[in-house]
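Reopening this ticket.

The earlier resolution said the output was attached, but the attachment link was broken on my side. Pasting everything inline this time so it's all in one place.
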Amino acid sequence: MLRTSQRTLLQAFTLALATILFATYSAHGSITLDDTNTNILITPTPLMNGSPCLITVTPPSNALSVTGNWQAHRFSFFSNSDHRTWFALAGVDVELSPGNYPLTVEVDLKNGTHQTIQQQLTIESAPYLQVPLTVPDKFVQPDPKALKQIAADKIVKDKAFASSASRPQWTGNFLPPLRLAPESDSFGNQRLFNGKVASVHRGLDYHAKLHTPVAAINSGRVVLARPLYFEGGCVVIDHGLGLMSVYMHLSKIEVSVGRRVRRGQIIALSGASGRATGPHLHLGVRWQGSYLDPAKLFQLQMPSFK
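Inline output:
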């Protein structure tokens, strides 16, 4: 029989080991917690600023609902047809500082029990560059008339971004808007307009000749379709659950607000309108106000659901 001191030491060691195993888990795989039997899988790995990610939760039995809280974002999961596996599409803003960010998942099971799972997700730093660009001075130092238009545009954009469908509107994997045009300026680069640091590039640019057909990257509903000062011809599609795609510098818009579009449907023609250095397509992906790397979104294998 163990002495009291030995038993106390063994208990302390066991508790310390369990704490270490829980605390050191990051986004490099899945974990099953003994007290909940709920499995959580994060893809891709590693996570970096600008990364979209798919969070998969498998409770021990059928669940009524699953919700999450991460980086001050609250979000809902959607389930497959048997309600045994739940998914959420989330992301890390391009300008988020690297570090550890706690994820909380709340699970309501059909048997009336409630589970709360917490774990740290590690965000690493992505290697973004500085890119010098030359544009007309009016886009660097807008005059009073332009500033008035920019303010009006902000109201329009805020309204478009204000709400999103409560269920996924997409079907299958997300696909590039142009099949042949190569990518040019990389997502996340720091843009220097006329020698001055202006912004972080929050989208992906494609070399595209004028009037090249532009396709929706997935199904959804059009929430903005009009010219804007910086963006030029602009279309925004809501894909549900806070996820939206933004298409900029268009020469012609083929859809209207409220219209539902299918993945691959032609929605516009590329151009050089707005603050552009030449003909190209800018594609942005936005999740609850955070801008994500479209190229990484195209690499995610999206689950099927009903």
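Reporter confirms the inline version is readable. The helical segments are 4-23, 144-161, 294-299. The chain has a mean pLDDT of 83.
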